[in-house]
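Researcher: Structure prediction, please.
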Amino acid sequence: YIRTIEACLRMGKQAIVLLPEIALTAQTVERFQSRFKNIAVMHSALTGPQRNAQWQMIKEGRADVVIGARSAVFAPLQRLGLVVVDEEQRFGVEHKEKLKEFRHSVDVLTLTATPIPRTLHMSLSGIRDISILEEPPLDRRPVQTYVMEYDGTSWSARPSTPAAPRAAPRREGTRSPAASPCPAGRPPSRIPPSGA
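Model: Predicted structure follows.
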């Protein structure tokens, strides 16, 4: 989505990037500072004077990109052209109403690996446009998964094997019904062994 923001800025517009967690703000700002000059941050960890300085930067039109969590949607941008929702999140009613206001004049790009059911339904039924990225980016490193075992005193890691994830549900299925997390009267689901 960084290239989309670059295209937005080339058209003389501004962009908002809504992050799912305040904790992601610092790393996002760091990544964006290498590509964009005028970045404003809306973050609850800022001091009062810092927040005021960022708000004035936005209000005066000196910010091209505003990065923050849900509250960034209320940034007073005069030339807003793009709102990027980086991973769907729980918006309050006010936030949803503000996003609806943007719908007709601003491009809204929602990115998610796990869409909420309503968004998935809207996309599949044609109410919202959907793009599916089926190929990973160039130079992407493969994910490494480890299954950790606890022996009562320490954790030991070992690389995951195809059979390892299947062993846990089988162990769960052997527990007594009183200890089972499954609803009463419904047996735990079984995962067939590899190759079945």
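Model: The helical segments are 2-10, 25-33, 48-59, 93-102, 117-124, 164-173.
Researcher: Thanks, that helps.
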